[in-house]
Amino acid sequence: MDRMRVDSGGDLRSFERSMLDDLSRFQRILLITDGTVTELLEHYLEENIEIHKILESIEGSSAAIYPRHAGFAQGYSGAILKREVLLRGQRTTKNWLYAQSTILLAHLDDAFREDLLNTKTPIGKLWKKHRSETHKAILEINRHDAEDAAGYFGISPKDQLITRTYGVHSNSRLVMLISEHFPLDFFLY
Rounded CA gap, 76 and 130, in Å? Predict the structure, then answer.
């Protein structure tokens, strides 16, 4: 697995950029953007993107945090929402992106938490709806075998995924850790 850790400020410039060199321009944009990936995909693919929830589970303690996120959420001990979703083309029904989220529920405001739990609205669109000021910090970018996620994309478990993990802060508190995965052979032009 190729992995690139990002400094605490989310700055890719301080790291070897060779892992990004052989990617398409749009793949690099998806990995380093601090904007809403859903909207980028809608413009790039020229179709609406909808969310398909695979898993949503409220856990009583931080012990259930995804292993990929655990090192970034040290010190948090409240309830979490574990969430796995697919971003799917509305017209094509193709799965374009698989995401795992660890959401620190005690750090969210009530209205946002209610919408998150009771609607199918992608997280990025909820930030806009609630006019929440957020800061995203990219924590890690890597490539790895698709393994169990291969079925979401119709690829082999040995095919490569590109993943970015980032933290979302609001009101100076970490509120979410999100890992977004997509196949290396998507978005090549």
Answer: 24
What range defines the domain where residue 168 resides?
Answer: 2-183
Structural domain count of the chain: 1
Contact yes or no for 98/149 (Cβ under 8 A): yes
Model pTM score: 0.83
Buried b (16+ CB within 10 A) or exposed e, 84-101: bbbbbbeeeeebbbbbbb
- At 26, which CATH number? 3.40.1410.10
pLDDT tens readout for residues 84-106 = 999 999 999 999 999 999 999 98
Any residues with CB less than 8 A from the CB of 138 and at least 6 apart, and which?
A: 6, 10, 12, 31, 32, 34, 164, 165, 166
Q: Could you give the maximum distance between any two Cα atoms of the chain, in Å?
A: 43
Between 37-45 and 25-32, two packed helices, what is the crossing angle to 10 degrees? 160
Residue 188 lies in a domain: no
